[in-house]
Design a protein that fits this description.
Blueprint: H1 3-23, H2 36-47, H3 57-60, H4 63-78, H5 80-90, H6 97-106, H7 115-141, H8 147-162, H9 181-196, H10 198-212, H11 223-247, H12 259-275, H13 288-300, H14 313-327, E1 334-335, E2 338-339, H15 342-369, H16 375-386, H17 401-416, H18 418-426
Antiparallel strand pairs: 1-2
Helix pairs in contact: 1-2, 1-4, 1-6, 1-18, 2-4, 2-17, 5-6, 7-8, 7-9, 8-9, 9-12, 11-12, 11-13, 12-13, 13-16, 14-15, 15-16, 15-17, 16-17
Length: about 450
């Protein structure tokens, strides 16, 4: 049982348990046994923090069922290894080297020592942001609902947003709050923070702490921090400008809104298309060019060590830097006066190639099972599932049984990671002492 196999089987176990619980009559609003496919799809989407749905979460499931969905989102966002290791620490078990390696690989971190401190920090940070977000959303929901209902809505949406899940208890997601800047801003901040990763948050926290203590030492941010923050900011601005320019005259989305509201909605969709499936406008009525821009942003996704999916911002930046290096005729891949290891470059290239192949295969399969659905909608749905985003043009529930099963597999692959899944299937690589002679070939 290798580390990749442990992680993959762990997520499968969570999905199976979630499916069984969501099938219970206690989990549905009608009190009847749930359909197995609906329960499986919902459990997979929750564990994989995707947000694609085949039924309305707020009306189809009972409070018990909604609580199960919320628990699956939280466990899926933290990750199987994080939740399991925390449980082992609580019962007093000491962690061996294999446990530490599993945590390191599952959380995409280079930290191997002080795992207990690392886990406590992650759990504490998660609770702080989720509780703060719930309190901020409570200010909005108490205007429309009773305190108890408003509190539940605030907690559910805060956890869903921070874990980049995109599940909502409203039938129209957040469309009814499209002109209310406060909940839109709160959800956006939660999604961004949850999508940049633990390491970036901790470096930012230490920088703020040093400034408050009036320390004069110059903070040296890591290369990871610089790449993640700069690339994230660039993609957010790019998406905002693109959606604003394309959709400003679309009567079904932004046309008719004030310029300030248009900027708010365009910015929100730019944030959401990265990893979380909330929406404040009707995605199915967006222009085809906007859908294609959203596909590109979804494919990139969030950052390593976060609750989001996609190929990750660091992967995109590494490939862009490699392209610049090749165009300049240089041999070393440098960024911010640091050289990127060739092993990291090869991994980034592998992630992109494997991800593109996965999306192509899944899109082809669904186009065969559901030939009447337009290609742009199928591609949008496939990328949304693979990048664990959860946005949809509204075709998810109308897909055939096979089509929905393909999406279930896609969400699972996107959550565990294509390279981790292949490592689990193929096993640990065998070391080789053979070095073949080098030979040049033509490219480009």
């Amino acid at each position: 049982m290798t580390v990749p196999r442990t992680i993959c089987i762990g997520f499968l176990t969570l999905i199976v348990i979630g499916t069984l619980l969501l099938m219970l009559p206690l989990a549905t609003a009608t009190g009847e046994w749930n359909q197995p496919l609906v329960a499986l799809f919902t459990a997979t989407s929750a564990v994989c923090v995707t947000g694609l749905i085949v039924v309305d979460t707020g009306t189809y499931f009972s409070p018990f069922g909604q609580g199960i969905v919320l628990l699956l989102i939280q466990l899926g966002g933290l990750g199987y290894m994080t939740a399991t290791t925390l449980l082992l620490l609580l019962i007093g078990r000491r962690l061996g080297l294999k446990d530490r390696l599993a945590i390191q690989q599952a959380m995409e971190t280079s930290e191997l020592s002080n795992v207990k401190v690392l886990l406590i920090s992650i759990i504490s940070m998660t609770l702080i942001f989720e509780l703060t977000g719930a309190f901020c959303l409570l200010l909005t929901f108490t205007k429309q609902f009773s305190f108890g209902q408003a509190l539940w809505l605030a907690i559910f949406h805060s956890v869903s947003a921070f874990n980049n899940a995109g599940f909502s208890l409203f039938s129209d997601s957040l469309v009814q709050y499209a002109e209310d800047a406060w909940p839109i801003a709160v959800i956006s901040v939660l999604v961004i923070v949850g999508g940049i990763g633990y390491q970036v948050i901790m470096e930012a926290f230490m920088w703020v702490r040093d400034r408050l203590r009036l320390r004069q030492d110059r903070t040296v941010f890591s290369l990871h921090f610089k790449i993640v923050t700069s690339t994230t900011l660039f993609l957010l601005l790019l998406g905002t400008v693109a959606f604003l320019l394309i959709e400003f005259d679309n009567p079904d989305t932004l046309a008719g809104e004030s310029f300030g509201t248009q900027i708010l909605l365009a910015g929100f969709q730019s944030v959401i298309t990265r990893t979380a499936g909330f929406n404040s406008i009707d995605i199915g009525k967006m222009e085809a060019s906007s859908l294609f821009m959203a596909i590109a942003l979804m494919f990139v996704g969030a950052s390593p060590g976060s609750t989001g999916g996609g190929i990750k911002t660091t992967t995109l930046r590494i490939l862009l830097v490699c392209t610049r290096t090749a165009l300049r005729g240089k041999e070393e891949v440098n960024c911010y006066q640091r050289q990127i290891p060739m092993l990291r470059v090869l991994k980034a290239l592998s992630v992109v190639v494997a991800s593109v192949m996965s999306v192509v295969i899944i899109t082809t399969c669904i186009s065969v099972t559901d030939p009447t659905v337009s290609f742009i909608n199928l591609l949008f749905e496939s990328v949304s599932a693979f990048a664990t985003v959860g946005l949809s043009t509204g075709i998810t529930a109308d897909l055939s049984t096979l089509g929905q099963l393909f999406l279930i597999v896609t969400m699972y692959i996107g959550r565990v990671g294509i390279l981790l899944l292949m490592a689990a299937i193929l096993g640990d690589p065998s070391p080789s002492a053979i070095h073949y002679p080098e030979e040049d070939l033509l490219t480009g």
